[in-house]
Amino acid sequence: MPQILTDSTLDDLSPVHALDPEQRARLAASGQIAAIAAGKRLTALQEHPWLVYLVSGQGALVRDGQKTLIQAGTPRARQPLFSEQQLLDQMILTEESEVLRLDRQLYDALSGQQRPAVPGSLEELDLSDAEGALLGKLYHACKQGLLGLPTLPKVAHAIQEAMQDPNITSARLARIVQVDLAITGGLIRLANSVFYCGVKSIPDVRNAIIRLGMEVTRSTVMSLAMRQLFRAESPLMKHRMKAAWNRSVHISALSYVIARHCPKFNPEQAMLAGLVHNVGVIPILDYVSRHEIEASEEEVEAAIIKLERMVGELVVSYWGLGPEIAEIVRYSGDWYRDDQETPSYCDIVRVARLYRLNQSESRGPLPRYDEVPSYYKLGLGFPTTDGTVDVLAEASEELGAVMAILKGES
Q1: Which CATH architecture has domain 154-407?
Q2: CA–CA separation, 142 vs 154, rounded Å?
Q3: Pair 93, 39: CB distance under 8 Å
Q4: Separation of CA 357 from chain center
Q5: Domains 7-111 and 154-407 share a fold
Q6: Among the residues of 178-234, which ranges form H helices?
Q7: pLDDT score of 261 more than 60
Q8: CB-based burial of residue 198 (10 Å sphere; 0-12 exposed, 13-18 middle, 19+ buried)?
Q9: I need a surface site. Which of 16, 42, 93, 291 has the fewest CB within 10 A?
């Protein structure tokens, strides 16, 4: 096993061999070779972020119940083990083996083969037979307006409408907010938090709105209301909704803290952006739950991967959140995207997502948060030696406070 990957390591691997030497060297630098024990199972879902190659040993590729033996060194082993379209495939290693993982997004960026984030038709999704049943139902329900897009909670909708009036007053906003005790409490806690705390503690929602300001109040109410949407009937979907909510809250809080250290950004808008970046999971999980569709966790996860961004864009458009939020739903997971000179809220959410993955969920050679264009555009400075962004390391109290507010904790 080569200890240091070089461009020559990739010479015989398809399709990466078509890159020029400099590009292959960059891709190799992001790669990783891992030893895998005999009997270990790899899944296309878990390995989706990477191009995976078998470099030693052998294993059986399982697709739709059919097994194909793959031996290292053969022409088949020089192709990726998993197709990006066949997300239900599995690989069972029949002997101790080694696999090479290369960053799929980086390869796409280097080769210029990036696809649109939101597919326009079912055919563009390249469904396998096994995925077709669930994905087909979800896709057609989505296109026909039957998916059941979540409506904004009553208070959030009322705030959105009220903010259309240029003469809106804090007293009127307070009357709207007061019908929801959880949101009222959240606004008061934010106004008295380390971010806005003044000389005197604020006991009521009207004075909280005055301290926060109209736009901050609007974004905060929208964010606090989001919690009501992450609900499902079936126990399995409840579990997945809770996991999605906790992930969104963490990314939202990270986005808030990052925005506080970047000029010209509204932290509350960044908080909302982080909270809705994966809003597409809500209608998908809700649809499966309401229609009692029999689907494995793998099939549901495959549906989320392929449809989440398309559904998410429909949701934020339905809510009237504007093109900037839609851009975040589309592109905040595209680590290497660099199509704008000036930083945006999408850059903030992108760094927050990657930071969280680096800290808690990373499997395989994902880029570090400080290796992507968004990090430098935001001017966050240099990371510390232990791999933590300075502004986040110094803001653990702030991070905890935002997460507590969003979760409705005292």
Answers
A1: Orthogonal Bundle (1.10)
A2: 23
A3: yes
A4: 10
A5: no
A6: 181-191, 205-212, 214-226
A7: yes
A8: exposed
A9: 291
- pLDDT by residue (tens digit) across 157-215? 888 888 888 888 889 889 988 888 888 888 898 888 877 776 688 889 999 989 988 88
Domain boundaries, the chain: 7-111, 154-407
Distance, CA of 100 to CA of 103 (rounded, Å): 10
User: Measured between alpha carbons, how far is 398 from 410 in angstroms, rounded to an integer?
Assistant: 14
Give CB contacts under 8 A, 24+ apart, made by 128-133.
128/63, 128/64, 128/85, 128/86, 128/87, 128/88, 129/64, 130/64, 130/88, 130/299, 131/87, 131/88, 131/299, 131/302, 131/303, 131/306
Q: Which two tokens stand for residue 38?
A: 């005999």
Cα dihedral 258/262/266/270 (nearest 10):
-30
Assigned CATH topology for domain 7-111 = Jelly Rolls (2.60.120)
Tokens standing for residue 358: 């680096």
- What count of other Cβ atoms lies within 10 Å of the Cβ of residue 291? 12
User: In the chain, count of helices (H) and strands (E)?
Assistant: 17, 7
- Measured CA to CA, the distance from residue 214 to residue 218 in angstroms comes to 6
Nearest to 197 by CA among 409, 397, 406, 407: 397
Provide the Cα torsion 18, 23, 29, 31; round to 10°: -30
Nearest CA among 109, 117, 113, 47 for reference residue 80: 47
Amino acid occupying residue 15:
P
CA–CA dist 58, 130 (Å, integer) = 25
pTM: 0.84
**Closest listed residue to residue 389, CA positions, set 372, 400, 375, 373:** 375
pLDDT in tens, 360-369: 755 678 888 8
Residue 9, token pair as written in the block: 């390591």
Q: Is 384 left (phi over 0), alpha (psi -120 to 50) or beta?
A: beta
Nearest 5°: the CA angle 222, 226, 231 is 160
Gap between the Cα atoms of 244 and 279, Å rounded: 9
Check if the beta carbon of residue 58 is closer than 8 Å to that of residue 115: no
